[in-house]
Amino acid sequence: xxxxxxxxxxxxxxxxxxxxxxxxxxxxxxxxxxxxxxxxxxxxxxxxxxxxxxxxxxxxxxxxxxxxxxxxxxxxxxxxxxxxxxxxxxxxxxxxxxxxxxxxxxxxxxxxxxxxxxxxxxxxxxxxxxxxxxxxxxxxxxxxxxxxxxxxxxxxxxxxxxxxxxxxxxxxxxxxxxxxxxxxxxxxxxxxxxxxxxxxxxxxxxxxxxxxxxxxxxxxxxxxxxxxxxxxxxxxxxxxxxxxxxxxxx
Length: 250
Prior knowledge:
Layout: E1 2-6, H1 10-23, E2 28-33, H2 36-45, E3 51-55, E4 57-58, E5 61-62, H3 66-69, E6 76-80, H4 86-89, E7 94-99, H5 104-120, H6 126-129, E8 141-146, E9 149-154, E10 158-164, E11 167-172, E12 177-180, H7 184-190, E13 196-198, E14 203-206, E15 210-216, E16 220-225, E17 235-236, H8 241-248
């Protein structure tokens, strides 16, 4: 199980790490974040964990703000010194609401509940039940803009999407570049995940546009992609390398 701990108090953060290891040494703690902003940035640029262990009062606001900025649909266990947020917490994908100080017994109860739910309520892949429905929800074309002109671009001809500050551009296999009215987060929901992969915060690439993958320093990978300029830094972060390899071989 992969877990992210969101806690702005160092003693509480270290205690949760210790308790998780006591409960199950095989648990992988992917990251420990301390604020709404840091957590949002992490979730936008990395694979989501199996569980979010989340304090409610963070240094820059309530952790509920995270879910207004990130599409997150995995279980959450809340830890807090306050009981007045329980109703709001259970509107999320909340498994439990633990009042501090967190004990091993309380954490184990919550984790066992999560395991029980996972066993008894396994998700159904409806695409397997109805093969004709596969990919029907994904976009088949985009409307791109160059100056005042608008162009239709078929999804199959796209090489990659690139975020430049608040703007997002689409580049096709020929290197033509278009402005599109979408955020990277919205694109992740609209694109077929069997064809597109988000490399990092700036790039989403089509598998058929990848020409070469080679090792890069600090255990990362660097891609050569059709239509990309030499200045385009197509680098997969170390944390995403395993996900990329799994996606590429699906």
